[in-house]
Known about the structure:
It contains 2 helices and 36 strands. It is mostly beta strands. The chain has a 14-stranded antiparallel barrel.
Amino acid sequence: MIMGATVALVVTMTWGPQVLEDRIDFYDPTTSAFEGSEVTYRGADGRRLRLEIRDALGSPTLLFFVLHDENGREAEAVYFQGDTKATRETFSYSEDGLLKTTTYFYEPGIAADRTESVLDGSGREIKKRYYRADGTQYGEEDVRWNDDGSQAGWDFRYVDREGGTSFRYEYLAYDEAGEWLRRIRGRDGEPERIEVRTQVTPTAPYQRREPLPFAREQVSTGASETSPSFSRDGRTMVFARYSDDWNRKEPYIARLGENGWEVERLGDIGPVYNLAVAPDGQTLLYSTQTEAGPELHRVRWNGSGWSKPQNLTDSYDVRGTYPALTEEGALLFFEHDGDRGAGVYRSRPVGDGFLRPDAVFVPSTGSAFDPFPVGGSVILTWCVDDPCETGPQNGVWEIPEDGADSPTKLDALPYVWGFQPVPSLGIAIFTDGDEILALPLSWVRPGSGH
Length: 450
């Protein structure tokens, strides 16, 4: 029975500006690997209807459905956790609306544990008490809020034995309306996960997912990072930073260690226009801008350092920018003055060198560049119409190698470049020219796996 169902609600319930979908993506604070997501779905009146928690592959780990009483309050719910059977909850309220009791039914018709939530005048939880089925209390929790209305965290403690846990949020970014976009959740003083939020409202029914600045304070530092590239195992990456001259960027390499990404400058090969690491992490390719035009170079790891740079333009007559190596050793790059015009070309390997390039994708309109090989396709950035940042057709496209006349746009992405899937981290990586950013790979390319 739902207590107080006919009593007028005293507490003023607040749900914000009609958020229809509130999505929070979880990332590891050390590696930036995607760990899963939590999505709350609401009706047009703001009431919570459904909650989903999914793992990094997109598989559901919790499905939660809510029903409401005639006063608009949550009355009961049923949830499915993993492969378990349904669990039912009921919600009852005190007459003043300031105490909400949740009763759990693990077996049909048999009340078990319960939780009492003390609410403030706006309907927020400020204290919780936890009880076993026999009525004995085993824990309590203080819920803390910041002056701006955002949640500061909570402190849980046992009442029948020593021990407890403290959680705190550090807020990193807000949107123009003051809603938080990124925060770090800490557990007992240690970062536990990064949370990135995307909201869908009636006035903005479709929004791209809010991205994560990759490896904040290590790789993404606000110093104009670009040109990201990862090894196959996702444990080595290269990137570049620039200041005033886009043609002369400083190259960096980062390796994933126990404490996160360890970054060092590649002083022997800079400055560069852009660069990439081979799938095995043992070869670097980079391009430079010279008076004679762009040149491509290669260095190899010899066990203790990088080899002397080899000028691939002089050795094999391959000239361009935005290089990438396939698993088979073929060289992909953008060439402005190719045989068929400006576009993406491929030079197949022969011995230690490369054959004459052949065209992979030369668009009939606009400019296509920055290729990355994925299976039997090449993913690249295509500016179909100026201005590149706003045109509806501009963005990241997937081009089948055996069917360049049937490209597919990755609509989950805005106009960015440097795209690369990093399956070992569960992310897709890219840049907007200012930051290196990440999104869940399962969102950008469904079915890509982890």
